[in-house]
Amino acid sequence: MVAIVRSRFYSHIALALAALIVVAFARTYYLRFMADLPPLSTLMQVHGLLFTAWVVLFVVQTRLVAAHRVDLHMKLGVAGAFLAAAIVAVGVVTAINAAAIPGLRPSGRTGPQFVIIPLTSILIFGGCVFAGIALRRRAGIHKRLMLLGMVGALGPAVARVVILFHLREYATYVQLAAVAVLIAWCLIADWRKHHIVHPVFAIGGVLLLLSWPMRMALTTSPSWEPIGRWLASLA
Prior knowledge:
The protein has one domain (9-224). The chain is built from 10 helices and no strands. The protein has helices at 9-30, 42-66, 70-99, 111-114, 116-134, 139-152, 155-164, 171-194, 199-219, 225-233. The N and C termini lie far apart (59 Å).
C-alpha cells in the first residue's frame, strides 16, 4: 500500500496564525497580569477564552490530519462545532458592547461606526466554519473553508499589531496587507502542490480581501450610522 503524503502547509499556517494571535494579544490578554491595565470584564474574558480554545483546536486538528488521525480529527470536530457556535454568539455580544465604549478606534472610527468591522469578521468566521462543517465529507473544500474562517477572524489581532507598532494611520492598509499575504500563501501552496488554485481560495480569498475596503466605506455611510448607534444603544 502506498502511503499518502499529506501537505504540511495547513500545519505550518495554523502555527503561524496561532503565533500572530498570541503576540498580538500578549499584552492585553495573555500577559495582562504583567501590565498596568484594568481587569477585563467577564464577557471579554469568556470571549478570549473561547477564541483561544478555538486556536488551540485549529492547530491540533491540522496536526491530527498530518498524522493520519482523521478518525480523532472528526470526533474533535463535533466539539468544534459547538465551540464555533459559542464563539459567534459571544462575539456578536462582545462587538455590540464594545460599540458603546467612547473614543476613536485605531482606524479613526467611533464605536458605533466601527462595530460593523468586528461584526463582519464574526459573520465571515461563522459562515466559513459552518459551511466547512456542512461540507466536511469533501475534504478539499472543508479544510480551505476552515482556514479562510481563521483568516477572516484575524482583524482584531492585526488591529493590536497596528497599536503595538504605532501604525494607526495605516490601519486599513495593514489589515489589507495581512489578508493579502495570507491569501497569497494559500494560493502559492495550492499551486505548488496541485499546479492549480482551488476556487475556495481563489474566490473566497478575493472576497475576503475586498470585504475590508467595503466595510471601511460603510463605517461612515449615512445608511450605517443609525444602525451603528442603535446597536451601541443595546449595550
